[in-house]
Design brief:
The chain has 9 helices and 6 strands; from the N terminus they run αααααβββββαβααα. The chain is of the alpha+beta class and 313 residues long. Strands 1, 2, 3, 4, 5 and 6 form a 6-stranded mixed beta sheet that branches. A hairpin with a 2-residue loop joins strand 4 and strand 5. Helix 2 packs across helix 3 and helix 7 runs antiparallel to helix 9. The radius of gyration is 29 Å and the shape is elongated. It starts with 11 loop residues before the first helix and ends with a helix. About 5% of the residues have low confidence. This is TOP6B. InterPro entries: Ribosomal_Su5_D2-typ_SF, Ribsml_uS5_D2-typ_fold_subgr, TopoVI_B_transducer. One of its GO terms (biological process) is DNA topological change.
Length: 313
């Protein structure tokens, strides 16, 4: 199935080309088959407003420039039942495979946001933006690591000139979501699928500025950030608890972070819990209050900390 035009976002040149290339011979099937959200009732209403001599039987090749301009004005102001919703039929977004592939690439120890998907239209052509953000992937450097895709093909050149890069660097308040670009690697994965993508040139090196696409990418990334915020807050809390536990019996506990494997975590926490049953002594054999083992409340905190780290996702 071919992607259909979105009526209220189509531009005049796209409409002209669409009428010239359409497989439909007359205006009625052109409207009902080549546009989303336009059925027979809506098409009849549009044709009535155009006041065509032959009505619904008017052939596309006989429509004049003025009549085409009139049709464009009607479509631009067209209000349909879906209230602006854009259908992604005829497109092939990556979907869940996008997230699973990223998970395989970055590893299980990395925090992933949910996959954010947005569908809208550019110059009448529908497109879908899929976005996902990763935190603390070992194979990435600190700061932003941007991975761009267009119609499933990776974009590897001119990253600094790309629209996705501009949005990630200048339109997202990372600190608002407890994400510190100075301290951790942040992976930005954005895929755009559509029948008309604004590339810089025929080489398709990067995406040019287009307001509706910029807004859609921004909304998709913000949705990812909002999904990550509670996970980042949990991460900070776990780190604070681990730093507190470091004042007790395990010297290496300060190094316990999300890159440590689960067996090592189990060993450390079992050791702490075991030491909680022993009363440390000072050099003279008396109880050392400064090195006292965890009390019941602190033992519960240790268990809670372990559960939070163990249930990373």
């Amino acid at each position: 199935m071919l992607a259909r035009f979105h009526p209220s976002t189509i531009d005049h040149e796209t409409l002209k080309k669409g009428m010239q290339c359409s497989e439909q011979g007359t205006i009625m099937p052109f409207l009902t088959n080549d546009f989303m959200h336009i059925g027979a009732t809506e098409a009849s209403d549009i044709i009535r407003k155009m006041k065509l001599c032959s009505g619904s039987d008017t052939e596309l090749i006989n429509i004049t420039r003025d009549e085409r301009s009139q049709l464009h004005k009607i479509l631009m102001g067209y209000k349909h039942d879906c209230s602006g919703e854009v259908s992604s039929e005829g497109l092939s977004p990556i979907g869940d495979y996008f997230r699973s592939s990223i998970r395989q690439y970055v590893g299980d120890a990395t925090i992933l946001s949910k996959l954010s998907t947005r569908a809208t239209a550019y110059m009448g052509h529908p497109f879908v933006v899929e976005a996902l953000i990763t935190i603390a992937a070992n194979k990435m450097k600190k700061g932003l690591n941007i991975y761009r895709f267009a119609n499933r093909a990776p974009l590897v050149l001119e990253e600094r000139s790309d629209l996705i890069t501009s949005v990630a660097k200048h339109h997202i308040q990372w600190g608002k979501y407890s994400i510190s670009l100075e301290k951790i690697p942040v992976g930005i994965f954005v895929s755009l699928v559509g029948t008309k993508i604004p590339f810089n040139n025929i080489l398709k090196e990067y995406l040019c500025n287009a307001e509706v696409i910029e807004t859609t990418i921004k909304e998709a990334l913000i949705t990812c950030c909002e999904d990550l915020r509670p996970k980042m807050v949990d991460q900070e809390e776990v780190s604070r608890k681990l730093d507190h536990l470091a004042t007790f019996h395990i010297e290496g506990v300060r190094n316990v972070r999300k890159d440590i494997d689960e067996d090592a975590l189990k060993t450390i926490f079992r050791s702490i819990l075991k030491q909680g049953k022993v009363t440390p002594q000072d050099d003279e054999g008396g109880a050392d209050a400064s090195q006292a083992p965890p009390a019941d409340l602190e033992l519960e905190m240790i268990k809670d900390t372990w559960n939070r780290v163990y249930e990373r996702q």
